[in-house]
Amino acid sequence: MDPLDATLFANRSLCWQRLKEGERALSDAQRCKELRPSWAKAWYREGMALSLLKGGHGDYEECWTFWRTIPLTSDPESSITLRGPDPRHLLLSSPRKPRT
User: Fold this and answer.
1) Rounded to a whole number, what is the distance in angstroms from the first to the last CA of the chain?
2) SS3 category, 54
3) CATH pick for 6-71 out of 3.30.200.20, 1.25.40.10, 3.40.190.10, 3.40.50.1580
4) Considering the entire predicted model, what is its pTM?
5) Residue 73, CA atoms < 13 Å, CB-side half-sphere
6) Contact 26, 53 (CB under 8 A)
7) What are the CA-CA distances from residue 5 to residues 32, 54, 59, 86 (Å)?
8) What DSSP designation does 96 have?
9) Cα dist. 39→3, 7, 30, 35, 51 in Å?
10) pLDDT over 90 at 59, yes or no
11) Which residue intervals make up region (Disordered) (predicted)?
């Protein structure tokens, strides 16, 4: 096991998440983020582990922190490529009022 392999920690964090071991998932996700702080998957794994620890109802602070740290650049070599929808809309949407 290479202690400097961020991919290993990301994958192991996912394994811990699937086993519902939130503390271990978070520990590995944070180590992954230390090794590769600009890697979107590291931030995602940390957010998922925190959500698991909060019973699946975590806030979106970790997600917002990630978006604030992304370097804004037009250079495709140094920018971060994310797959999937932009989760920022979750932070900007207001809760719907119940119908009466």
Assistant:
1) 58
2) coil
3) 1.25.40.10
4) 0.59
5) 10
6) yes
7) 8, 27, 29, 27
8) P
9) 17, 10, 12, 9, 19
10) no
11) 78-100
